[in-house]
Design goal:
The chain is an alpha/beta fold. Helices cover about 30% and strands about 20% of the residues. A hairpin with a 2-residue loop joins strand 9 and strand 10. The radius of gyration is 19 Å and the shape is globular.
């Protein structure tokens, strides 16, 4: 099976059962360190519910990522610019970021926008940064998806659990998602470095938070910002931003949303 990242030949690593019924194979590429499933014929069943029932960390994850993203954007990018949450799910993150004061918009063709209605992205121009959290592992064609994202912005802040080395067997790593079958692509740090080089981007990775960027960023500074988001930096950012919560409400009322 050809690797969906670098097109080299991947070798079968193991078989396992997903959704308690489908026996599938996983293929590993030694060239770029990418692990992929066999062609995912089961996805219609896997996405009967967009957000799988076992994702109990949905709310806490969004709260944590709001703090980290706020700090990174405030110190690394133009805080007044336009931002997009790509594969934004129910719109929780977009709403949280607008509540802090950032001009965030929602994008997700596969999920209903529940809590950031009225702030769907309609114009892809001048987007400074895309966020994309817990989405890369869902990409059936990751390179096509990444190129679509880079067509919107040359800066992507994202999360996905890095594939351990050596590759764990199915019972050793929860991130395979065997119960829900939605995870089909798994990236090692080697994979992310390959992607960064392919598109002439910088890669920064710390605490599961990855940044692909055309912007020159000091790696130690990047790591310190992530660490500092839990120790006062987010409070500093929030005090120095102007929340859009109330102005958004009046805007939506005026527009009759």
């Amino acid at each position: 099976m050809k690797c969906k990242i670098c097109k080299n030949q991947s070798k079968k690593k193991f078989d396992t059962v997903i959704l308690k019924k489908h026996k599938i194979a996983y293929y590993f590429c030694t060239n770029c360190g990418f692990l992929q499933t066999s062609e995912p014929y089961w996805l219609k069943e896997a996405y009967a519910e967009t957000i799988n029932i076992s994702d109990t960390g949905l709310i806490s994850r969004n709260l944590r990522l709001c703090k980290i993203s706020s700090v990174l954007i405030y110190f690394l990018f133009n805080k007044e610019a336009k931002f997009v949450d790509f594969a934004g799910g129910y719109g929780i993150f977009t709403r949280l970021m607008r509540d802090v004061g950032f001009n965030f918009f929602w994008h997700d063709p596969y999920t209903v926008n529940l809590v950031s209605r009225g702030f769907e992205i309609t114009d892809n121009k001048n987007v400074v940064l895309l966020t994309s959290f817990e989405a890369f592992e869902h990409f059936v064609e990751p390179i096509a998806e990444i190129e679509n994202m880079l067509g919107m912005s040359e800066n992507i802040l994202f999360t996905t659990e890095l594939l351990p080395h050596p590759v764990p067997n199915p019972k050793q790593w929860w991130y395979y998602g065997l119960d829900h079958g939605q995870h089909v692509s798994f990236y090692s740090l080697q994979t992310l470095k390959y992607i960064a080089k392919k598109y002439d981007l910088e890669l920064h990775s710390s605490s599961g938070i990855h940044l692909l960027s055309s912007k020159k960023v000091n790696n130690l500074f990047y790591k310190s910002l992530i660490k500092g988001s839990s120790f006062g930096l987010f409070s500093y950012v929030k005090v120095n931003m102007k929340s859009k919560t109330v102005t958004d409400m009046y805007q939506l009322i005026k527009q009759g949303k």
